[in-house]
Amino acid sequence: MGRGGNGDTRHSAPLTAEEVKRHNKPDDKWLLIDGKVYDITSFAKRHPGGAKVISHYAGEDATDAWVAFHGDKEFVSKHLKSIYIGDVADYKPSTIQEDFRELRALVEKKGLLKPDPVFFISHFVSLFVMEALAVWVFWQFGTGWLPYLAAMLLFVSAQAQAGWSQHDYGHHSVFKSTRVNHWFHHITIGFLKGASSHWWNFRHFQHHAKPNKIKKDPDVHMAYLFLLGDEMAKDWGSKHRGFMPYNWQHSYFFLLGPPLLLPIYFHYEVIHFCIKRRDYLDFFLAIVFFTRIYWMFGSFLGGWGTFAFYMISRAIESHWFVWCTQMSHLPNDIKRDAKDEDWLNLQLRTTNNVTSTPFFDWFSGHLNYQIEHHLFPTMPRHNFRKVAPLVKSLCEKHGVNYRCKTVYTAFADIVR
Questions:
Q1: Residue 9 banded pLDDT, cuts 50, 70, 90
Q2: Residue 154 and residue 313: Cα distance in Å, rounded?
Q3: Coiled coil: which residue ranges (predicted)?
Q4: Which residue has the higher pLDDT, 158 or 6?
Q5: pLDDT band at residue 339, thresholds of 50, 70 and 90?
Q6: Which stretch of DSSP H or E encloses residue 32?
Q7: Start-to-end Cα distance in the chain
Q8: Coil, strand or helix: which one is 39?
Q9: Which end of the chain, N or C, is more open, meaning fewer C-beta atoms within 10 Å of its C-beta?
Q10: 111 CB neighbour count, 10 Å cutoff
Q11: Which residues of 265-297 are buried (b: 16+ CB within 10 A; e: fewer)?
Q12: Contact, 372 vs 391, CB < 8 A?
């Protein structure tokens, strides 16, 4: 019997679930998928989604997470054959796991994972239309304060919606081909937004794998500015860590949170990520993006004027982004990872929905259906409303709290 990824790791005798749990160390990681055990110690470094996201499930049953993230399971399964160890003899999914997997099968049968081409084509085209209209406003009406505001509104809307669009491609929810989704993701997040596809994947898939889990979800790693959740606050308070006046964080959030996240922090992190990882493609696309912005607005606003227009637009978009993405996460449980938490409970305890209207669906990129998005991350967003009643029914059966808030309550809860 081998272990830790050294030599032949295949077991002739059946394994036990308890034995799998013990293999959750940095140099000894096993993964359980549908009763089969895989040694991912070495494979994690080659994992296309990154080493961290797969390592977060070391020693655990990753069946539902694996199914949720991989569209072409037959292709992905080929990569698992070389690291297969053996079967768990006492593998028995819980009732809630069995019911959720039945729901997943029903979702696939109903075709709810299939995208509507018209929806995504029209949305993609609208991004270029809004940007073109922003340039047309300056060309037609000049740079007075009214056309300036109109052009900025159009540009901000294009950038915010491009953010939701890249999110679709990043989750492989638009095309059947993973490769085509990857290329469109590079185009939307790189050419249209000046960010990095690989950087987004690195952060966002960890968030989906273990949402709101301390040290596993990058989105809650803000302790040097904000302490999120009770556990982090108690831990840092008892150790006298940090230097911010955290008792006032609900106030300085309005100064350091939404206004600065996109225009300052994300620019720094993307550049740092690309240089550190030698990600030349994404770095090149970011340069093309900034060149494109200067070419679009430079003749009207000049160099510094274009820079100011861009930074103000980013600050406005940053508010749009923060409130829409965090209304369904920050007010919920932010804790250390609890092992053996089933997929349904994990996602429902850390997410909530927000009331749906046609405008708010568009405004938030359908992230107001955060529960359905987290349970089925590759599902095209126009189908969230169709699967929502099925998810709600399953939650009622098992006594899981399915939370849906009004927009006002969801935004207020961030501050609370």
A1: low
A2: 10
A3: none
A4: 158
A5: confident
A6: strand 28-33
A7: 53
A8: strand
A9: C
A10: 9
A11: ebeebbeebbeeeebeebbebbeebeeebbebb
A12: yes
